[in-house]
């Protein structure tokens, strides 16, 4: 029996949750050892961003044997502890981080070997979506679109709600179809992060969407596009597959695979493949998602301020007099604040961050300074 949140003949639909990133924009909580997908920043139920993503995806694909996670070896045990329904065989382990082109091509190769007719959706593990039914509906429409148009790479674009300069944009092209109640458009162009004036123009124009980086495609066709546009990835992954099948000694096999994978260019899939495709080989489904990529502390404040309708967002041991528009996260220590405005304070066991809320995008610069002056221990 099918419902509005299921799809018939879905035995070839798969999702890969991309959970190998070591994002540092939410430092000092998000670190290399425990990046943001393993934290609870906004959930009222104590769940991590990864667990929330798993739940959303499993609404679209209830048979969790069709859900994989691409990650790094360092996060393997953490992921298995958070997601008891995940089989260890459904972890696709990157030998080392080499960009999204490598990670997605590796995932496509892995799944296509098991199901040559696979249609795969790659989903970020660290986004926040509050209207989950809309996400599920759009994802199912994207699967159906990729099945109907197997030569197209499909993405889900987000209807913008503000002139945000921190996101890339998608300019829609021709109206192609309507699938499961969703319009499908070709993609005329991808636009880099705009300046404020350009972002305001995009917001006024219905043709522009935020690019969330979700890609849905037929695995065999995608691998052909890898061969066409970035042959070094295709050839190297084929060598890796051959070595895995023919070297019996595990230690030597792992050493060889790691050495080969290390040679891959560290390229994002957007510029390596997606932006090079002709318009007829890419499509977008607009969706009114209540979405955030949780890109910095200011974004977390905005989500929680809207939800709780309060001016001070505080977690842990905190006392305040007269502060406004502040985010305060205490781990163990009492944090006392007086008369602050637009400030972020985050305390961990070994670090305290105090930052103006409109400057938190400079954390990467701060971390470079910390690396230079204090070493790697705080990163």
Explain how this protein is built.
With about 375 residues, this protein is of the alpha/beta class. It has two domains: about 15-230 and about 265-290, Spore Coat Polysaccharide Biosynthesis Protein SpsA, Chain A (Alpha-Beta Complex); about 295-375, no CATH class. The chain is built from eleven helices and 17 strands. The strands form four sheets. A five-stranded mixed β-barrel has the order 6-9-7-8-10. A hairpin with a 4-residue loop joins strand 16 (about 345) and strand 17. The chain is globular, with a radius of gyration of 21 Å. The N and C termini lie far apart (about 50 Å).
Short description:
The chain has 11 helices and 17 strands.
- Structural class by SSE content: alpha/beta
Q: Report the CATH C-level class of the largest domain.
A: Alpha Beta
**Number of discrete helical segments:** 11
User: What letter string, H or E per element, gives the SSE order?
Assistant: EHEHEHEEHEEEHEHHHHEEHEEEEEEH
Q: Main sheet, how many strands, which sense, barrel?
A: 5 strands, mixed, barrel
Total beta strand runs: 17
Per DSSP, what share of the residues sits in E-state strands of 2 or more residues?
25-35%
CATH topology call of the largest domain = Spore Coat Polysaccharide Biosynthesis Protein SpsA, Chain A
Specify Rg, calculated over alpha carbons. 21 Å
- How far is the N terminus from the C terminus? 49 Å
Instruction: Write out the strand line-up for the largest beta sheet, numbering strands in chain order.
Output: 6-9-7-8-10
Number of domains: 2
Point out poorly predicted stretches: none
Overall, the morphology is globular
CATH superfamily of the largest domain: Spore Coat Polysaccharide Biosynthesis Protein SpsA, Chain A
Overall mean confidence score, pLDDT: 92
């Amino acid at each position: 029996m099918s419902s509005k949140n299921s799809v018939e003949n879905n035995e070839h639909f798969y999702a890969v949750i991309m959970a190998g990133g070591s994002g540092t924009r939410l430092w000092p909580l998000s670190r290399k050892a425990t990046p943001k997908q393993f934290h609870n920043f906004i959930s009222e139920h104590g769940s991590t961003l990864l667990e929330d993503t798993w739940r959303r995806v499993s609404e679209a694909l209830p048979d969790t044997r069709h859900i994989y996670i691409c990650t790094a070896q360092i996060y393997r045990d953490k992921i298995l502890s958070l997601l008891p329904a995940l089989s260890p065989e459904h972890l696709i382990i990157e030998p080392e981080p080499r960009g999204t082109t490598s990670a997605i091509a590796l995932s496509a190769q892995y799944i296509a070997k098991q199901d040559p007719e696979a249609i795969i959706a790659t989903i970020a593990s660290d986004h926040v979506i509050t209207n989950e039914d809309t996400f599920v509906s759009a994802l199912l429409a994207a699967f159906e679109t990729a099945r109907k148009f197997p030569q197209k790479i499909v993405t889900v674009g987000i209807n913008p709600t503000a002139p945000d300069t921190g996101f890339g944009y998608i300019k829609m092209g021709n109206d192609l179809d309507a699938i499961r109640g969703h319009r499908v458009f070709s993609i005329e162009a991808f636009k880099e992060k705009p300046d404020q004036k350009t972002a305001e123009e995009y917001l006024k124009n219905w043709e522009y969407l935020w690019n969330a980086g979700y890609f849905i495609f037929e695995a065999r066709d995608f691998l052909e596009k890898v061969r066409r546009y970035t042959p070094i990835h295709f050839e190297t992954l084929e060598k890796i597959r051959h070595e895995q099948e023919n070297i019996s000694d595990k230690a030597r096999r792992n050493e060889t695979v790691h050495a080969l994978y290390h040679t891959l260019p560290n390229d994002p899939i957007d510029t390596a493949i997606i932006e090079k495709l002709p318009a007829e080989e890419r499509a977008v489904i607009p969706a009114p998602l209540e979405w955030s990529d949780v890109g910095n502390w200011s974004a977390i404040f905005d989500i929680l301020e809207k939800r709780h309708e309060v001016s001070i967002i505080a977690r842990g041991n905190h006392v305040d007099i007269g502060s406004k528009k502040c985010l305060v996260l205490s781990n163990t220590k009492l944090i006392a604040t007086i008369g602050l405005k637009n400030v972020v304070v985050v305390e961990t066991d070994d670090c305290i961050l105090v930052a103006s809320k409109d400057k938190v995008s400079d954390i990467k610069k701060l971390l470079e300074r910390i690396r230079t002056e204090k070493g790697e221990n705080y990163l």
